[in-house]
From TrEMBL:
One of the Pfam families matching this protein, by short name: MST
UniProt xrefs under InterPro entries: DinB/YfiT-like, MST-like
Protein name according to UniProt: DUF664 domain-containing protein
Length: 161
């Protein structure tokens, strides 16, 4: 895959990240920490999950093979954010996303992931496959964010009247 393909995939991933975050714009601390869905997850928990279990996991641990990142992930609870301001949770997601993009640019789409967990049910062979997986996962969670936001404040992502 070419450098153009790489930038195209990163542009699509960035759009999905923005879509997800836009669902939570304007929500106050109480709304960000409350759950609108029976499963009980909160908007902040979703952003924290994407930071730890998606950006850090797939890009830092799997693609880059960074043992320090793996240790950070092991110490964190991906669905239960630390008790910090919501702005800190959003900032950590932005920082993790920027690191992820840098890893992809450094490694290239054709490279194989450096590390793969023995107990993972499937194996992705290239950075490109991981990026495509993360795009799909982030897009799915953006849809979850849309549903939660609509239940919280009535806002809808795309309305064609």
């Amino acid at each position: 895959m070419s450098e153009l393909d790489q930038e195209l995939l990163l542009t699509v991933l960035a759009a999905q990240r923005r879509h997800l975050l836009s669902a939570f714009e304007g929500l106050d601390e109480e709304q960000l920490r409350g759950s609108a869905l029976p499963s009980g997850w909160t908007p902040l928990a979703l952003v924290h999950h994407l930071t730890v279990d998606v950006e850090m996991w797939w890009f830092g641990a799997v693609i880059d093979g960074d043992a320090t990142v793996r240790a950070e992930i092991e110490a964190a609870d991906g669905w239960h954010p630390p008790d910090v301001r919501s702005s800190t949770i959003f900032q950590r997601y932005a920082e993790a996303s920027a690191r992820s993009d840098a890893i992809v640019r450094r490694r290239g789409l054709a490279a194989a992931p450096v590390w793969w967990p023995d107990d993972h049910p499937r194996h992705l062979d290239t950075v490109a496959e991981v990026v495509l997986h993360v795009i799909a996962e982030t897009a799915a969670h953006a849809g979850h964010a849309d549903a939660a936001a609509e239940l919280i404040d009535g806002r809808q992502w795309l309305v064609l009247d």
